[in-house]
Amino acid sequence: MNINFQNAKFEKSAVAKNQYPDSGIPEFAFAGRSNVGKSSLINKLLNRKSLARVSGTPGKTITINFYNIDEKIYLVDLPGYGYAKRSKEEIAKWGDMMEDYLANREQLVQTILLVDSRHTPTAQDVQMADWIRHYHERLIVVATKTDKLKKREIEDRLNDIADTLELTEDDVLVPFSTADDEGKISVIDMLEMMRLGVILPYED
């Protein structure tokens, strides 16, 4: 039975594993730099305007936020990285929390990396890609904010992202825009298939 993505609710925020949901349903996490658009992507997938809080202040989200989707999966908004005004202590805490979640969370099916389509992935994006590859069989990347590019620029930007992150034929790259529906169905289909155990990339 398909997931009803409009039957969604914010369940909880967590900073430690003893605060994570204990329902056991599959989790799909979104990782990326601060202000890359994780909350906006979640809202777009759920056809909501503000279920996931979109902040104008980069780096504001320092918790792991769990969204219960139709009692079938969780979408998990991970804290953004790369915010220069964070203290060394905050950065260390972020790293420990992320490492523990990625390494030890049994319900985590896939971590999806978000990068800004307008820019070459940073060293921290590359590091996160390496983390994801370590804990998952493949790298899934969503290139956000494609609506801010001219159409003739998109292919070159996607090629740059693929080259910088060293994507292989086993990896997935999805262009995404919250201004229209580009990428929305692709991401939803991927989540559905991964929940059912279908191996990506998937070709009909």
UniProtKB/TrEMBL annotation:
InterPro entries in the record: G_ENGB_dom (IPR030393), GTP-bd (IPR006073), GTP-bd_ribosome_bio_YsxC (IPR019987), P-loop_NTPase (IPR027417)
Residue intervals of the EngB-type G domain: 24-197
GO cellular component terms, A-Z: cytosol
Record keywords, A-Z: Cell cycle, Cell division, GTP-binding, Magnesium, Metal-binding, Nucleotide-binding, Septation
Gene Ontology biological process terms, A to Z: division septum assembly
GO terms assigned for molecular function: GTP binding; metal ion binding
Cofactor requirement: Mg(2+)
Function summary: Necessary for normal cell division and for the maintenance of normal septation.
Family label: Belongs to the TRAFAC class TrmE-Era-EngA-EngB-Septin-like GTPase superfamily. EngB GTPase family.
Protein name in UniProt: Probable GTP-binding protein EngB
Protein source organism: Candidatus Ornithomonoglobus merdipullorum
Gene name linked to the record: engB
